């Protein structure tokens, strides 16, 4: 039997919002360690990986590892019926074909119980190797979202040029050229406004804006986003979920003419 | 001659919002007692009934009973031209084919006068018999609206199960099953947050969510909604308009398998 | 070489919003006096004229007169990438085919540089003769916007009847008739709430609401709008931009039956 409880439905709603445009169906793997999900997007270009640690929940019980195959759209639709402040309980039997979600309002006089049918999904898990990255950029997640959205007006790709002390985001297109420069920003009142660049060697790589814009749907989950980047390996766009886990997206660089400006 | 005046256009705008998706044309019956309207919805499934008492107006004069046939869409469009705080005057001659609406802003330097053409409508009035109901539920109108909207994600119908102390709203569909339980709620800071269940015998009836969702367009009119319900007679969904009257909707229960869960 | 700087991108964004639905391509004429633009709308019915004076900028340098042909949609798209509080610099070489726009955030650690390709446009400038007008009405710009929007629900045209002390806006249509009367309003707390009517002879002219509603896209630029009106010449709808210049729209009256009510 599996049963877990979160004090606020909001975080689970935000996680579904962060995933639903990328993936249609996915498997939540449940173990004593917590919940996790890994899936290629529906066009098999990027990968998303979610970890929610057992100790981040109000209560968490999992007697045997189980796999919950869900239609993401349905799960999001049902979670939308929860108010942000409702507490939420997820339950499933070891061999059942239902996921039960219970939402309870703060003063306890409204309880909503949803039973969602599970799907038999056969999804292959890719191993994600541990990796050292040449650069790690941390920046306000909403600033990253704006930049990706703005540059999509110009072109299909963004070139990330990371050097000591700053980052350039450039895009080319029929209507012109754009370069957004962000300088490291350390002395800030609010930690989430910081921009930090941790670099062992400069990088200069190009990525598809279409996918970065999908990833920024996770913006409400975290004040900061981290970009981990090295030549020849996928970029990692990571959002930490306070005390609970993370959502990470992986996207391989474009290998075309990224050096001619 | 008919002439009446309300201090705020807002309430009349809200009434039109509450009616307009259900009915395309209707007759406002004007008498010395006030304004009233009764109409089946355009697919002849539900019935709506509005009463606005003469004593709720700033001034009300009606020399002879008259019937004002209006296109609801047109009347709503014109009322939208009034600001919420404008005072509003309705005028019609006894044998005229025009309804005049005058909106005046609070400091009196802007006056808008709209003359709307009336229609010759032949609408049969149904008698609505006085009725004792097995159960009367009163609850926050926005909570009822949320429940009806949420359950429409699951199925086409909602089953209302009313017992002493609480109400269950259940829905079934391809994606699963939902049950929302509301417990009676008496000690509240704000009267409109209360949930009360007045019951002489338990009921268990099923209704089309499509129509309940039309009815909840009246939510802005009143903090509370009342559900009056008895076996074999239409449900009454009622919204009181403070000091002025009410909007009531009538909907017959579905007679299919409402008892197998 | 041309280079100018504004402390807030907001005003330039608002100007583009005010123009973009009317004109697809236009030429910004740059001289030592400032920036100006004049263009017929794409259906050649109305005319728009913009003046931004050199002295209204933080800095302004123009060595030789140049003409910058721009696609309005592209320019607006790029300006939308600026935050309202960013300062903005425009730059162009004397014989170049690029307009460079640089946005810098207030604390100076984010710089966005956009290079927009210019177009070779051959646009004929109409002389706008200096003119005395029979009436000048000044009123809150958002009130004018509401009136034009409301009356479009009734008919295609508005008749302006201006007499000493007030203005009538009337419209006729299949659903009825509307007349909105505005009285002169002098004693107001906020200057932008005033309604003033300056009149040498009464006028009574009819205009296409479709175009007036395009013009009111300039509403955010100014708290007040001015209507300058005389028989047989185009109405001027003007929005002053504080310390910087103005946007003016010209629209000829309709010559059909404007006098039979």
Order of helices and strands of chain A: EHEEEEEHEEEEHEEEEEHEEE
Which two chains form the greatest contact, residue counts included? A-B, 18 and 17 residues
Number of strands of chain A: 18
Largest β sheet strand count, sense and barrel closure of chain A? 9 strands, antiparallel
Assembly state here? homotrimer
Give the mean pLDDT of chain A. 93
* C-alpha Rg of chain A (nearest Å): 20 Å
Strand order of the largest sheet of chain A: 6-2-3-4-18-17-16-10-14
Q: What top-tier CATH class of the largest domain in chain A fits best?
A: Alpha Beta
Distance between the termini of chain A: 58 Å
Q: Can you tell me the CATH topology of the largest domain in chain A?
A: Proliferating Cell Nuclear Antigen
Question: Uncertain regions of chain A: pLDDT < 50 for 5+ in a row?
Answer: none
Derived structural class of chain A: mainly beta
How many structurally independent domains of chain A? Answer: 2
Q: Helicity of chain A, in percent?
A: 10-25%
What's the CATH architecture name of the largest domain in chain A? Box
Put simply, the count of helices of chain A is 4
Shape of chain A: elongated
* Beta-strand content of chain A: 35-45%
Subcellular location (chains A, B, C): Nucleus
Domain Proliferating cell nuclear antigen PCNA N-terminal (chains A, B, C): 1-124
Main location (chains A, B, C): nucleus
Keywords (chains A, B, C): DNA replication, DNA-binding, Nucleus
